[in-house]
Amino acid sequence: MAFAKVYGAFERLAAVLAVFAAGLILAMAFWTTYDVLARKFFDVASPWAFDLSEYSLVWITFLGAPWVLMQDRHVRIEILTEALPARLQRGLGLLVCLVGIATCAIVTWRTGIAAVEYFDRNVMMPRIWRIPRVWPYCAVPIGSALLTAAFALRLGLYLKEPDPEAILRAKASAGQSTGHEDEAAKSAPGG
15 lies in which domain range? Predict the structure, then answer.
């Protein structure tokens, strides 16, 4: 029961972060449109827009990734996994989770060290906006830590649930007319 609560709480956190990332995408669309129109009609450059877009893309990627992973809406080779027996699917899922945890933990660790060094040395971005490099850069260790947690929760799903692939398939297809919607509501630990 505790696993289901933690899983559900993390899914809600990931959803909030994904909404924030979507808001950044919307804002980026507005300031990019402004930049294009200002250049075209008023011959006014907005060099800040390019820098802000670069910084936002990093945050968008790392804030949205945990939600994508938790909802199983990432790119997968379903034709391969669906063709495997359930036992082999579980083993492959466990292996992917373990590799994901290790990789994301290493990225968190190494980029976290770099972020702390940027903060300690007060390294500035060599751009139009002279902001501390740590602010756009810290998205990487924060997002990687969240991805580590998401992979750990997926690992728990593979260890606790009798058919984790069915749960993940249902999450990935939620809101689409595939027939898996009811399955997601009944069997998901966080749903």
Answer: 2-187
Quick one: CA dihedral 134, 61, 63, 108, positive or negative?
A: negative
Phi/psi for 116 (5° steps) reads -65, -40
Residue with tokens 């850069």: 137
DSSP 8-state symbol, 28? H
> Across-strand partners of 132?
124
Give the predicted TM-score (pTM) of the model: 0.84
Q: List pLDDT tens digits, range 36-93.
A: 999 999 999 888 888 899 899 999 999 999 999 999 887 777 777 778 888 888 898 8
Residues 6+ apart with CB under 8 A from 13: 66
What was the pLDDT predicted at 47? 84
How many whole angstroms separate alpha carbon 114 and alpha carbon 122? 12
- Tokens representing 89 are 């699917």
CB 150 within 8 A of CB 63: no
